[in-house]
Amino acid sequence: MTDLRSYLGTLKKTKDLKTVKRSVSTKYEIAALTAKADGSFALLFEKIKAKKFRLVSNLVGTRTRFAQAVGAKEDDIHERIIHAIEHAKKPKKISEGQFMENQSSDASVLPIVTHFEKESGPFITSSIIYVKNPETRTQNSSFHRLMPLDKKHFSVRMVDGRDLHQAFMNSKKQKKNLKVAITIGVHPAVSIAGAYQADWGKDELNIANSILGGKLRLAECPYSGMLVPSGAEIVMEGKILHNKTHKEWMVEMLRTYDFARPQPVFELEKLYYRNNPIFHDILSGYSEHRLLMGMPIESKLNRNLKKTFPQIKQVSMTNGGCNWLHSVVQIKKRKDSDIKPIIKKTFATHRSLKMVTVVDTDIDPNDAQSVEYAMATRFQADRDLLIIKNVRGSSLDPSSDQKRLKTTKLGIDATTPLSKRKGGFEIAKIPKQENFFLKKYL
Which whole number is the average pLDDT over 136-142? Predict the structure, then answer.
């Protein structure tokens, strides 16, 4: 199965889904409970005050659940995603989607969550927008948060230069509105593909279909003509107005407030939803948000860097770096001169990176204490530090030059110097330690 409900069935079997039967409010309560469950389990809220929809959050809040979403073991996530990217396959189209079971022209029926005290309003945070590429006429799908303005209008958060923004600017030059479709509540594989920054003109739904073993089915939206997953819980279609903006601000991946900025406005034509629908909410700045955005980039780093540097064993986007700004590269070191080219290539592959640390194969890149140990025992600041000043960084980083988007980047060589005595860096081990369990002796 390739819809959200089939994935929830998987989580129920593995006991990674908890159901909340009490009535809850969309204002702060759902966000607070999701934050409490962060990194533990997904939550299904069965009763939302004044709404008929159910709501789910924290779907892929751990690497384990992320692996479940792509049908892989945790150690094989990147192989699975890279294979899907390189063997993307166009989904089949069916005559009518399950999302057509109900329809409305009033978006106020949706249980849109208010998350943080100083945000400009409630936000739909799981919304994926589908648009036609103006040059290739292929579809693009990407995440864009929506803030409701009234029953039919939403501000649309866009990032300059990305595919939707380019399509919108093309329509704006022609003084035309841009027809789009929007889904809320899809299988996480569709979300993961939508979060991946595919090359210009490539359809992310083809990647999702490959992740799902070629079983994804699409249905056409009557007004926009966009093809969306037939099993989507909620579909909105309409147009992004070429001549209207609204100022908003929100909490970003770093769990900090963005500054206020005018954004384009979406006008609803029709809202469709399944019987007993499930709304998906993503809590900004928490684990699901970070993994959804960061893991596809982590796959991209593993794919691109290993092609150039076979000595690389693993690249990880760290939790402490919000799965976006910091990475650790694990290598089987051949020579001391390997490190700086690896650091520079890592920065070039994901320009939002602010710090790259390179470690040996005996250091776990996903264990912050292990990485710090490598820095403590193998790093010398006068020899192993690379500082790159005044270069393009992340717009999310509040410490950077936000007007020019410039930052300073830091590369750290925390690998064992080959000129030193190897035994002096070997981590001592106790033979057969894994075979002894303390609880048997107490």
Answer: 92
